[in-house]
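Hi support team,

I submitted a single chain yesterday and got back a structure, but I'm not sure I'm reading the C-alpha cell output correctly. Could someone confirm the output below corresponds to the sequence I sent? I've pasted both exactly as they appear in my results page.

Thanks,
R.
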Amino acid sequence: PSDLVAKVIPGTGVTVNQQAAPDKRSYKVNFDLFKKLAPDHQPVHDLETTVRELNDNMVMMKFNDPGYRSSMLIRLHVLKELIEKKLLNEDLVWI
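Hi R., thanks for writing in. Yes, this is the structure output for that exact sequence:
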C-alpha cells in the first residue's frame, strides 16, 4: 500500500526506516460483524481511488502548508495538548 502513494502522486517518494524496530503487531482484521451491523455503511472506494481523490482535492485547493506537520491538524499534537492541559490522562481517557 505505501508504494501506491508514490505511484499515484507524482514526485512523491516513500521510504522505510530500516533501523526502526520491527512492528510485531498483527493487522489481520475480520470485518464480518461490521458488514452485518452496518450493511449500508461499507467502503465504496478502494485504496487507489481514495489516494487519487485526496491528491486531486489537495491540488485543486492549492494546499501548500509547510508547517502542516507541526500544526494542530495533527491528531498527536492535539492529544499531547489535551494531556498537558490535564483534560486527558496518559491512557487517553477524559479527566
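A quick pointer for reading it: The first helix runs from residue 2 to 8. Let us know if anything else looks off.

Best,
Support desk
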